[in-house]
Amino acid sequence: MAVLLDHIIVPARNKRVSAEFLAGILGVEAGEQTGPFIPVRTGNGVTLDYMDSADFHSHHCAFLVSEEEFDDIFNRIEKSGTRYYAHPDGSGPNEINRRDGGRGVYFDDPDGHAMEILTVPYGGW
């Protein structure tokens, strides 16, 4: 069997708020609470399991999307008033990047986790 990523735990000050924020931006649904987690399932079956936590460091999650999905997601980012930037260090505010011949953008979730959407994986196809 191949090794597949099943889920990651994402700590949040309010798991429902953070899960619904990300789900809304990505255009997917936040799931029902399972144990201490609120899951957000990606198209390849991996879940981001949000869990309440008072003490944590920020995480980074990147989502590979199609050009059309990028446009839809980016429009939701702009409409929400969410801060976005071109580079992982926060530089290039209100810009997207064109790394590896695609488009990418970073945005912050309510807890300061750096989320990213990109249309071409690092290093290109």
Automatic annotation (TrEMBL):
Pfam families: Glyoxalase
Matching CDD domains: ChaP_like (cd08351)
Taxonomic superkingdom: Bacteria
Residues of the VOC domain: 4-120
Entry protein name: VOC family protein
Record organism: Actinomadura craniellae
UniProt lineage: Bacteria, Bacillati, Actinomycetota, Actinomycetes, Streptosporangiales
